[in-house]
Every structure is written in C-alpha cells, then in structure tokens.
Design a protein that fits this description.
By secondary structure, the first copy, chain A, is an alpha/beta fold. The first copy, chain A, has two domains: 4-145, Cobalt-precorrin-4 Transmethylase, domain 1 (3-Layer(aba) Sandwich), CATH 3.40.1010.10; 148-245, Tetrapyrrole methylase, C-terminal domain (Methyltransferase, Cobalt-precorrin-4 Transmethylase, Domain 2, 2-Layer Sandwich). Helices cover 31% and strands 19% of the residues of chain A. In chain A, a hairpin with a 7-residue loop joins β8 (214-217) and β9 (225-228). In chain A, α4 crosses α5 and α7 (175-183) packs across α8.
C-alpha cells in the first residue's frame, strides 16, 4: 500500500503551512494536510478559552506527545458582536501577537503548520496570519473540505443542481438582509449560526424556505445533530451549526 | 508512519461510494477517498468523448492495471445548451443506463467507487446516480475539496472575510441575470465558464468588479492557468475554468 508521505510529501524548514483540516472527521483531511501534520516541526492552532480547539482535535491521531505545539487562545468569545469596537481592538491585538509568535518560529528555521477548520481561505482565522506573513516568508495554503460540504453530505442533501445559484450567508446579518438574500437564492447555506438561530429561523420562514431547510450542528463530528429547521425548538445553536437549503434545479 | 487504511478504512461489499476526488491535484484527495479508491472492487467514472476523464486522472497513482473499471462516456459535449430538449432526453437516457450498470455491479456484491470531481454533492453528475440508487442500495458519499477551493487557493486569494456573502453562479446564466447577481455580491465565484467567457467578462465589467476578478483554469492541475480576468483576451475558456472575485470584508 502507498504511504502517506509518498503522495503527501514532507514539510520544508522555515515555511508556514495553512493547513485546512476539513469539517471535523479526521478521514476527511487531505493527503497533503495529513502528511504535513505528520512532518511539520511545530503544530499551531487557535482555540477558545477552556476548549481543546476543534482543529487540534481533528489531528490528534496524527500528532505525538513530543511535538512542539503553539496554542493561540482567542481573547474573547463569540458573545461579543464582531462590529463592536472593543472586540475589534482586542482581536486585532491578539492577531498581531500571534503573527509575531509564528514569525519567531519561522525565523528559527522551523516549519509551522497552522491548522484551520474547513478550508483556510473560506472565513478562516488563518487569513489574518496570511496577510501579515505571506510577503515575508514562504507560505503554502492547503485547501480543505469545507464545513458546509461536510454538513450537506451528512444531511444527505445535494446542494446545487443544474444552474442553481448558491448563496453562502453569515447568520450574523440583520434579519431583513438575511430574508432578502434568502428569498433571492436557489440554494443557500447560512453559516455562523451560534446565538442567531431564532433570527435565522424567522428569516427562513419569511423567505418561504422552511420546507427545505435543514439544521446541521457539528456535521461529521462524533456528536453531530441533524434535523429539519422547523423542529429546532429548544435547540441552543452553536458556532459550528449551519442551515442548509438545497436547490431544486435540473434533475436529469 | 500511520497507513492510509488505518485512518481511511476499507470498502464494504455491495456498497456504492460517491467519492469526491477534489480539485485535481492528487494530494488534495481526502484520506477516506484515497483509502476507498485503493480498496473498492470497481472504479467507475464519467468522461467526455476521447478524453481520459479528469476524475480518473486524479486517482491514477492509486489504481493498478488489474482493477475492474467502468467508464461512462457522456453522449454529448457541453457544446449543446443544457436547456435544449434533445440534450435533456439524451443525457437522461444516458444516466438511466449508467445507473443500471452500477446496479448490476452492486447486485453482484461488488463495492463500487464512482469518482466525482470536487465534491459529489456540489454540481456533481454523481447526484443523478444518487437519486436513482440511494434508496435501494447502501450509498456513502465522501465529501471532497471543491474545485473553487482549489482555484482560490492557487490564486492566493482568500475568498470571504468577516461577514462577506459569497455567491456561486453558473456562467451559463444570461448576461443580465449574471450582472445583477454579481452586483449584489460581496464575493463571487463564477463556475462553468467554458464558452461563456466573453459574456462573463462583460457581466463582471458591468457589475464594476473587474479590478478584483481572477481567471483560474484547471486550478491545482499540472497545466493550470491563472491571470487577471481583464487580461484574458484570446483565452478560449474551458469547462474547468472559474472566475474568482474575492470579498473585501473585515480585516482584523
């Protein structure tokens, strides 16, 4: 049997890798991502206060105890609205310090794998590191299976058929804008549900899409939860929840 | 080093696997996809007349000469518009025959891996097999890195920041609708460029997005081509081309 390294290769000294680890199930990591996780000098990742960090959890079968790790803990939770000026200042300061820590590793000649949930260039914290380090250091981005691909797969719901237009909408938008954008969509994915679940449910209902809407929480992870959005009474909503609205385009 | 089979597992008899092989670079296959490609009894794939088939090409390092293969050749090229009734009839007949061929394999107790470019549930031909076979046979869908993730990664262009809305639009739409949808987007991906390239360029220009638009052809494959859309004079456009318009949301 072919080894991971034969196809996936090895990390190069002094390089920053933005590694998409996929939606949660370790089997959905790419060969390149897995090979790099096995071979980088340093594993770096973001995590919320008191949590292991989802991306770190995905790779746990591939990282031994002797590996150097950098854990970057977000200064705030998602309880503070992102457009709040205090949040912006604190998180910008945090990203600046994080970039400096990564820079020190790279200058020391070490290869660093910064883990990203899903795909690094799709709503990823990695992007804030990339824009600070991409010009000064060798950076390689490894695309990943997005969280939304994981969610529509587990919901057994093909998302786009024929000429369907897909709209990906953050659940953080205000209700009117959410409703308008949903009403104009053939297929839609609403990301970042968290505490926005009730607002999202009202918007989906107003847009006339409730019959097709599926709630997926932590899709592909061990504790995933999938149900029709209409039946979500009493569900708290988490950051790793999405609403999937499959398209109805051409069946052949 | 961990073997592919340890994490990716093995195929089960009589099961149909819809295997997303990712955007083109073999390294961007998932561990599950690679392990299944190595272990299914039958490798099945779609291909255009006279071509090897892109999905089959991606897995060539993993499939030996002794494996049973089913090649399904599309009866028509993408030269015929998809809304043409003759096209619809021919392609529906083709999909029906293809499903029957897969059914015969499954009834014979063989495991079948039907390859899909990108992600099987995102504009995939696999979906037309899934809707015919999912109720009668065990079917597992393996999500993949989408072609668009591969393209924005190679263009070194993070696609969505902060609360950006992403619109994914088939280039087959008429110019007015394309322009309208682009003008209302924070970030956009225009798929299925093919012979629609000139129309797409006019729509992007009308929507005022030409400064940000990047043309990516066969992203992550050996012969990829990446350039600003504005410089695409004389480019023929292929089915595996996309236009990427990165968002301008919150930088932190």
């Amino acid at each position: 049997m072919i080894s991971l390294e034969d196809i996936g290769g090895r990390a190069v000294a002094g390089t920053l890798y933005g590694i998409g680890v996929g939606p949660g199930d370790t089997r959905y990591m790419t060969l390149r991502a897995a090979a790099l996780v096995c071979s980088v000098d340093v594993i770096a990742f973001f995590a919320k206060k008191g949590r292991q960090g989802n991306a770190r959890k995905v790779v746990s079968a591939l990282v031994g105890a002797e590996r150097r790790e950098l854990r970057f803990e977000y200064p705030l939770t998602d309880e503070v609205p992102a457009d709040h000026s205090e949040y912006r200042e604190q998180i910008a300061g945090f990203y600046k310090e994080t970039a400096a820590a990564l820079e020190a590793e790279l200058k020391g000649g070490r290869s660093v794998g910064l883990l990203a949930e899903g795909d690094p260039f799709f709503y990823g914290s990695f992007m804030h590191m990339w824009r600070r380090l991409d010009e000064a250091f060798p950076v390689e981005v490894v695309p990943g299976v997005t969280g939304m691909s994981g969610c529509w797969t587990r919901a057994n719901a093909p998302i786009t058929w024929g000429d369907d237009i897909l709209t990906v909408i953050p659940g953080t938008l205000d209700e009117e804008r959410l409703t308008q954008r949903l009403a104009a969509s053939d297929a839609a994915v609403i990301m970042k549900i968290g505490r926005n679940l009730e607002k999202v449910r009202r918007a989906v209902e107003s847009a006339g899409l409730s019959d097709r809407a599926i709630y997926v929480e932590r899709g592909t992870m061990a504790d995933e939860l999938i149900m029709p959005l209409r039946e979500c009474d009493g569900v708290a909503g988490t950051y790793f929840a999405m609403v999937i609205i499959p398209g109805q385009g051409r069946r052949l």
